[in-house]
Model the fold of this input.
Amino acid sequence: MASPSVISGPASGIIPAEVQMHLMFATHGLFEVLKDAGDRWITIHPNGPNEPGHPVLVKTDPHNPSVGRIVAGAGGKLNYTTVHLKSPEGYKREASEKRAKKQAAAASARFDPDGGAKKKKSLQALNENRQREEHARLGAIAERLGWGDADKVTTPDDAELRGLDPKTADRVKREHMQKLARDVRAAALAAKDLLVTDADARAQAGIGEVPLRADETHLGAAAFLPDTEISKARGYKPETSAVDDATVRADKVRALEGRMRDAAESGNPEDAARTAGRLARTRQIDPHEIDDASPTVLAGWARVVSQRYDRLTNYTAAAQIIKGKRGEQGPADPISEEERAELDHMSKLVEGAINEGINNASSGFGKKNFPTWLKLAHKHGLLDPAAAREIEQKAAALRYEEAGAPSPESLTPDALAKLDGRALDVLVAEAATRIRGDVSRTPAEREAAQQAQRAVAPTPGAGPAPADRQQEMGGVTNPGPRQDLREEALVAPEMGPEEKRAYLARALDLGVIGPEAKPKPTADDRDEKREARDTAITEGRTAAEVLALHEQLRSVRSSFRKKSQAIHRGEAVEGTEYDPEADVGPHARVARGGAVDLHIDPKATADLVQGIEDEIRTRAARSFLDEVHGAYESTEHLRPEDAQADRERHMSFGAADALNNHAQTILGGPVLDRQAIDTLGADGAAQVLAWAVHQAREHEADAIHGALGDYHAGTQVEQAEDAMGQSRESFDAANEIHQGMLAQETGDLADWHAKNQERIGHIHRAREALGRTLGALEATASLHRAMGRQPAESVRVSLGPTQTETVTRQLHAIGLGAEDYEIHDDGTNKWAEIKASGFPKLTRKIDPADVRLHADMEAIKRGDHDRAGYLPPNFANRSEAPPYIGPAAPMLEEPFDYGLTKHSDVKTAVEAYIGQRVNDGWSPAQINADLLRDEHRTAFDAAGPIEHPGVKAWEIANPAPPAKVKDWTGDETDNPDHAAWQNRRSAHAITLGPTPAGSSRHSEFVAATNELLPARHSDPKREGEARDDLARLDTASADPEQFSRLASKYRVMSPYARRKAALEEMAEEPGMADDLSHAAERAGVETEKRKPKDIAADILAMEHPNGEGFIHPTHVEDVRREIKATAAGERNPKMMAEHYGPILRAIAEDHIARDRGGDKTGALHHQEIDPQHTQDAAFRALARHPEATAAFKPTHELTHPEREALRLAFHRYHAMRDTESAPRPDEAMAAWRKNSPEPVIEQRDMFDTGPSMEEKHAAWKSRHDAAKTSAETAYNKGAEQQEVIDWPGYVRAHRGAHAAYAAVQDLVRGRFMQDFHGQYQGLSGKPLKSGTEPIRGWREHRHGMDPEFREWWKTERDKAQNALRERDTGGRYAEGAVRDRIDKRMENEGATSQQQVTSGIGDMPTAAPHGGPPEGHERMTLGENVEAHLADIVGAHADMIDPRKPFAARFGVHMDARLGDDKVHQQRAINAWGRAGRIGLFLGAGSGKTNVAFGAFGEARARGQAARGLYAVPSIVQEQFGGEALAFLRPGETRWWAKGGAPREERMAAYRDPNTHMVVTTHQSLRDDVTHMLAQHLDTPEADVTAKMTGYNADGEKHAGAWDEAQTDANVKAALQAHGADGLLDFLAIDEGHTALNRAGKQDSHLARVIDSLGRISKHVGYMTGSPVKNDASEIHDQLVKIAPDKYGPGADKIGRAEFMRRYGGDTTASAAALRRELAKHTYLGRIDPGTDASYHHETLAPSEPQRARLAEIERAYMDARRAKQRGDVDIDAVRRLSPGAFKDVPKDQHHDVAKRLSAALGMARDAAFNHAVNIHPEGAKLDRIAEIVKQRTAETGHDGKPKAGVVFARNMDAVEAIRARLEKDGHKVVTLTGKDAADKKAEAKDAFQGGHADVIVLSNAGATGANLHRGSYEIQHDIPQTYMTWDQRQARINRMDPTQKGGPPRKLDVHTLALDHAWEHANKACLERKEALHDALFDGAGERLDDTGLAHYLRERLRPEMNEAGEERAA
Done:
């Protein structure tokens, strides 16, 4: 047994149907209660007349009882369907019956004038009264405006009417009053405008605070407020069709034919006969039609034939007479006498009343003869309208021919002279008729003509005025000629022949007749000739009075309009004779659209009524429809017809949205054009859409039908309630405002206006919510009904009362041809029947591939293809390196072999000792310090005295045999010979006796150390020269000149020179006066009253009587001694330990070879590393130290960026406190302990002969303490250092840039090695040995970083330059001598310090113990082998890394769903790009567009579909592109080029390079480069290429040779191929794609054309933007044109912009769901939660007083300039006040031209002035508020624990500078970023802010895209952006994911948007909010899966059983 059926719904949940039915019948009494008055039950057959019927309840329209909507029945699936309760045939019958009644009433009126004519008389009287009232008030207003007397101004001048016939005179009067009314209205608008906008004018009028309503003493605010509550716009511009007249005539004919048949069938013979007559006058009647026609139709045709027959007869007779008189053969009579008799008989039968003709035709005689007579008429052309017109034309011409006159148009003066009396009569009569209807001259012109006539009138007896005098009067030979002709026309018939001839001559001259006859002037022509009135009003009191009078005029018109409408409605009106009982009433007007073929049966099925009545849907539908009717009720300012139109407009929007959405869901694309939906109506469009669904998915039609019903039944209540809720909220808001306005006694006009506009907006939104929902519900129900039947063969559409021509043009505009439709009418309404042949023209064919693409894209977005742990193939899968916790690298060092147990002598032991430490990474300074330790002396002493020297001599004479030998088995064993040798050695030592006293091996240790590590540098050249000088000294001592040179060379002063210097010092220094006196006393020199200088000279003469040239023996010995020391090398500079590096390295290599048998294990310079971990660790280290790419190459090969990077590194290390160079002591010691683990103290083995573990631990503890002291010293030194060296000083310290760069290179390498060391150990889990070595230029670096030494250096240099007398050949001081002295001192001081390590003498720092951080002049080293490998890795990445910018090697990158970090949308976007090939990535800022682009390229490359790719990005993104690629991509696998600001040659090289996989350039550079390639390829100038691509030249003029799309694409592709750049067409990514959009109404930019072309010819294309729309939906269409150029754009098979805008442009917010569906297969939309807690503050600031004054001045200046413009004048002063900057430096005589140019665009000038006053005013309120916010926020702590950093945006450059200056004045560190900055300057500013070197960054809109400023904690928007895209992009600079944040609470952000309290700012804010709504509509719900909601859900549910069944069948 089948389970009971269930009914599910919002009311009942799920209850068995039997139970529900029982409950329904139990509540039978509710039926009458629930049923509303006017409702009726009917049975409909929606699927055809022979199909089962459905009882439905119809709620009738209160305004049209013939129309209703279903509110119950059919399970609610037909609810809201419009039902015409009369069929088209019924309307036609009703119309026919009413026409018959009217005809009968008209017939009786002829006999009873007081009957049916009363209505007409009443209306006529009412109209006359209205005219009198209007004239009186118009005259009063005109008189107040000074236009003239009230009585005179309302009627034309008598002169203007004189001579006109009555009909023309009436027309002139009407035109006069119409012109006056228009002028009055213009004046009233000017008055309103003046009073609303000008406070001074209101003050003049005494208007301050005004009441809402007017009274006897006050003008109310209502007079100033707009009263329009509706908008009549459709939301789009309809397409028009240039339909030719023939098509229109054909449609009219078909309409007449249909009406004729309908009238005949409906029993209205008179109407049928009249329509037949109209048809015969429109087209030719064929004989076969005569045979089939009814007698009624034959009678109508016969009446037309009779009329034409009479004209033909008259014409033929007249022609024969005229020709006969001239002796010519007249035209033969085409009709024979017999035929004429037949036609005469027929004419007599139809010449009376029409009903008599019908009776005659219907008689037996008539039925027999009328067809014969009409065929006879057809034979002679009497049923052909063209032939009839030809006869009429010939008859008109015959009139002149009969009189012997030419036609009026061919009359010439010569012909005029020959005319006789009859001809003159005919032509004069024609001229008089024409001139009497001519009113082309104005009264002023006529008055001037009359004055001129009087002036030139001849005196009696005098001749005519001379010609020269006539010429003086302006060439007027006959003043007022046309007026004279008009007046004479009244007596023309009474003129004599000559007077007539003269009259015609004047008419000929004036162009009334003749070849130059002018066409009859139109009303507009006459209007232009009337005197113009000044409608401008500048005085407030006049404006108020005019406005009050105009309000009275409006009241009069409103009153009479209501009375007229009442009479037309058939209502009695007091004061009129109209009797409504006698009126038939107007024809019924049919509503447009609706279901017209439901096959209604008025009998309902009673047994289901009660159950259906109880359904909640019925109640909801009734409530909803009641709300709709109530919302659109007429009001004081809303007429019923306007309310109806408003509702239809809103319903049209809703229906179009619903049908479009359903088409997208069912067919995967838009099918019907919005204009077609509007034309066909919801029901007609639904039938056509159903036909399209049947064509595409016929086998699923039943499921679709069911799904539509389920959807409609299941959602209609919710939709209706939502709409009612929105409507009630809006109506309540409007009512609240209205009540407040009524309660408010007075108010300011601006306040009244704002409130009223807000009220109207609420009303509009309320009606819109209801109307659109009703339209959507009706469309859904209609589509459900249409899908339940077979595809329609035709569709009948009701078009309401309209003209046939309008209908024709509407149908052709939507693509139909004449063969696709038929038009029917009932005399009032039109109906169109659309044939099946037109359906394909109305629907867009859906490509199955698009449907599959849509399904696949939805599956991707749904997550069907998600992969856990997914990363694109080119992404690096990194995790953070764990801290290394394993053992340290094993050390090779051993204690010194003091007892020589392992070594043959001390020197060998020293070499081993040194080699072990070199291989463990000790620095030369550390080894040197270790060798100088006193512990060595103590240890040697403890080891005992050395052996007797004789033992060594014995060993040399008796070499020791090997200690081990191999036995016969091959094993090693002790050598007995060696043991015997040992015994002999011991015996010999005993014989030698005791060791000499005081002997110790320590002296050998020192000697070996000095031998291995010399104390001084060697200078063989200098030492050789000294030996030569010593050999010739004896000879030279005899020659004073030679001896002087030697003494000077070795810097040995003579006794004379030394004494002279000493005496001079005594004489110059006051403090040495006593010394000088004692010397004088000893020398016997008198000092009394003498100068010190003279005393000193006498003393010198007494002590050295031989003078300066004498060679003193002691001087010779001093020189000899100095030369000997130099020759022995004793004067060479001491060698510092850092110079021992090569020596120590050689010792270490010898040690490995000698002592370790060549085993290099554990040796620093020979250690091996794992290649995979090395690559990863090196890349991670490069991320933090990108400058390392410049550290592994020769300095002469460094590029400018690399040099800059090294300089930046120098400044980071030394120009500021650097935590890396001076880490905290605890951090430094942790690193030291990692490399030098503490040894474990354990019990010593009894056989262990080495040092004890206690000794090892003590040594370790000593080194530990020393390292700790060193770390603390370094940290404190860094913290206390105040003075730092700059780069020029550093270069000078190194005596050259190359040496300075080399030193910094080593410093960078050390940092890089340190970072790599930690990364490698963590990744590999293996220890890696590290060491320390001095940097190149260590000496200069060490001393250069010492402030005291730098000061000494400067002083020493100055001294040397002043003291030295040696000069080189160029005459300069010997720089070499200065440098030598400096070098020597530096080296000697350092070496001395190092040698003092044992005693602690001196202040120079000593070497840090091994294992601690390197000294400032040292670096970490990992050994030659490792560093060589790292150099190769770094070199491979060098060309892709900007050494100036650190980047982040991202860890934990993923693209799957994870709690709190969901990035699966990136994976889906990549999959979607791969599936679609061409896609729009509409992803919000910070959502990972760049990663998606990387991943999509990686996937395409992995699939072999793309080898190279091109990325076009903003300049700021280009600067950070490399960092992003390095952060995410696998190192070394993908190469890219992304250098901002690079020259074209470098870009072109990148385009060509096949090994560059990704080329990144800016949009502008790409445009320029493509243009350049095209110009070169085509050998044409670039300007010409631009003109051909855009279609416009540089001047904005159209270019004749513009390329179409195909030509553009072909040329671009060929140009790229010619330049080797076509490989980039594999993959194209456009970031911030909105920059290349085209806009509706805007000329396409060159940039857009280039991007579009590249997009069309590329294989894979992605347009990425977070803001696809800035202003309107046309931008979305342009995005689609780029993404899918084969589907969108101009062309017959594409969706053009106009069609797209019709579908979505009217209200994109309401159409958002359908729009998202249309975008679904072409785009990926998404937003990502940036993980922030953002607060938005919209602040409205009061203007400052200076701002307030300036804003008021702008408003006054604008109004003054505007009023001047209305007068046709230019107010220079007003324009100058409005735009003072435009007149700056402009000569005064040119001010008028400037003002005139600005007046042409006053609105723009006013907006610019407002912008300047609001945003750039130097005393503006915004600047103060920004300063307050920054001060407040800076005092707060940000998420990083530091003071909050801020971002400020301003649109104007002046504002950026003003903000910067103000904030810097307040003490903030500020950087700016604007569009004028170069790319490197932008990057520098961004890095400075992100790096924490600035508190605030101030940006123009150039920084609104691409820049990542996540360091910012707050943002200030100085102005309101013009687009929401800009606002969104601005706030996204800080409101984005922070990659450095790891967990924790979300970042708290504050976004402040500042606005001034001014109408201009309020308007900007409102505009921004509208654009925000558009943006939100596109993105809200973007994360929803479209097939999980709405109709798609129900459709999938319905299709699932079918799919399962199909699957089972396939399985079977």
Notes: Residues 1762 and 1768 are 10 Å apart (CA to CA). The radius of gyration is 54 Å. The longest strand covers residues 64-73. The first helix runs from residue 17 to 26.
